[in-house]
Structures are given as C-alpha cells and as structure tokens.
C-alpha cells in the first residue's frame, strides 16, 4: 500500500479519534473530508462507520461514570425509528434541500451563541417526549447523511446541561446509530476485505486519538468545552452547507 495513502488514513484516524474522545461526536464530518481526498469513494463510508464505532466505544469505556443508558434510551429508540425515513429521503426525496436547512440552522445557532454578549437564555421543558422528538429527528439526519449527533448536542446545550450530563445522553445515542449502520453495511456487502484491511490500520490510531481526547475532556472547563463544541458545530454547518450547494 502506498505510504502516502497510509499517512492520510493515519492522520484522519487520529484527528477523528481525538474529536470523538473529546466531544463525543463529529468523527464522520471531520474525517470524511480527509479520507475522501485520498481513498476511493466506496471505501470511505464503511471505513468511517467502523472507525467511528471504535472511537465511540473507547470514549464510553473511559467515560463510563458519565454515561447513563436509561437517560439515553428514549433518544436511542426514537432515533432508530427515524433512520429508515432518512434513508428514504435519500432514495426518493431531495436530501440536498434537507442538508441546506440543517447547515443554515447550525451556522445560525453557533453564531448566535458566539455573538451573544451575555449567556443565552436556556429553555425549560419537562417530559421525555422532547428527547424522543430530538432522537427521531437525529435518526432521520443519521439515515440521511450520518448527521445523527448534531441535533441532540444543540438540544442539550440549550437545556443548559453540563458537559458530563450532555454526553451521558448523546454519546450512547451516537454509538447505537453507528452500530446499526455497521450492521446494515455488513448485510449489504459494503464492508469488504479492503475496508477491513484499512480498518486494521485506522482503528488502533482512532483508539489512541480517542484516549487523548478523553484526557483533554477531563481537564477542560465547562465554558471551554462549550466553545470547542460550538466550533465543531459551526465547522459541521459550513461543511454541510457546502456539500448541499455543490
């Protein structure tokens, strides 16, 4: 295998692993841009899903004290129900229009948060129905374009939860969606021997990056974590908007 190709796979794996370990989401959006530049298009989605799953598992193992499966369950099962609708939008609808709306929303939200001179008022809601609605919409976006994590992150930020409380809910959700996507890709033959060979290179680096990201998460302040996540959401919005317009 070409050494320069291996270097790009390793670079993407470490960057994606670090972001996954630190923020609990965002692997696919960052890594896809790196790997699509060097790898055949058909190899990237399954490689991203397998590698992101490894990153999520590492993060969950190291942050087990923060994770609450009961709190995440309403988000998870609603998200699973939303995935087929997102997939249907790809097959029969206009996914670029949905991406355009999501991209504009993420950019507007993050700029609003960054430009606020004082703390943005937090919303006050009760009842798990809202978690289910957000999970369902996140599942649609996951089935549409692998964007399952962004909406739950925004939602829990707006509720004013601490970084640990946010991750207790959305990181198990992300893992469940990724695991389901992995099974689906395996059944449809997308996880080929070539993908598995690349995964053997990428996964150890993803785990190393995720451990580094978790180490950073344990040391960052709540304000610093929020700004870092907002920056990642802004980057995600710009990338999604660019994809929808090209």
* Helical percentage: over 70%
Q: Which secondary-structure class do the elements indicate? A: mainly alpha
Radius of gyration: 17 Å
Distance between the termini: 31 Å
- Which descriptor suits the 3D outline? globular
Structurally, the number of domains stands at 1
- Beta-strand portion reads under 5%
Total number of helices:
10
The ordered string of helix (H) and strand (E) elements is HHHHHHHHHH
Mean pLDDT: 83
- Main sheet attributes: strand count, strand direction, barrel closure: none
Unreliable spans are none
Number of strand segments: 0
Notes on the protein architecture:
Helix content is 79%, strand content 0%. It has one domain. It is mostly helical and 246 residues long. The longest helix has 25 residues, at 163-187. It is globular, with a radius of gyration of 17 Å. It contains 10 helices and no strands. Helix 4 packs across helix 6 (129-145), helix 4 packs across helix 8 and helix 7 packs antiparallel against helix 8. The two termini are 31 Å apart.
């Amino acid at each position: 295998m070409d050494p320069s190709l291996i270097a790009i796979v390793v670079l993407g794996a470490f960057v994606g692993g670090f972001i996954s370990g630190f923020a609990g989401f965002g692997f696919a959006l960052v890594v896809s841009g790196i790997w699509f530049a060097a790898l055949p298009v058909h190899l990237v989605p399954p490689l991203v899903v397998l590698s992101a799953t490894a990153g999520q598992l590492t993060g969950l193992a190291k942050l087990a004290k923060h994770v609450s499966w009961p709190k995440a369950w309403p988000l998870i099962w609603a998200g699973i129900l939303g995935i087929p609708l997102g997939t249907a939008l790809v097959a029969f609808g206009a996914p670029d229009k949905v991406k355009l709306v999501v991209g504009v929303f993420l950019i507007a939200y993050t700029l609003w948060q960054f430009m606020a001179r004082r703390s943005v008022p937090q919303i006050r809601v009760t009842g798990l129905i809202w978690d289910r609605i957000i999970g369902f919409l996140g599942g649609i976006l996951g089935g549409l374009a692998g964007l399952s994590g962004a909406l739950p992150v925004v939602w829990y930020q707006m509720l004013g939860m601490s970084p640990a409380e946010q991750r207790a809910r959305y990181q198990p959700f992300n893992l469940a969606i990724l695991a389901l996507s992995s099974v689906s890709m395996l059944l449809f033959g997308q996880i080929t021997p070539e993908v598995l060979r690349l995964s053997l290179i990428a996964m150890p680096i993803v785990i190393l990056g995720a451990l580094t990201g978790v180490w950073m998460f344990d040391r960052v302040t709540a304000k610093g974590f929020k700004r870092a996540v907002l920056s990642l959401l802004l980057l995600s919005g710009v990338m999604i908007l660019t994809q929808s317009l090209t």
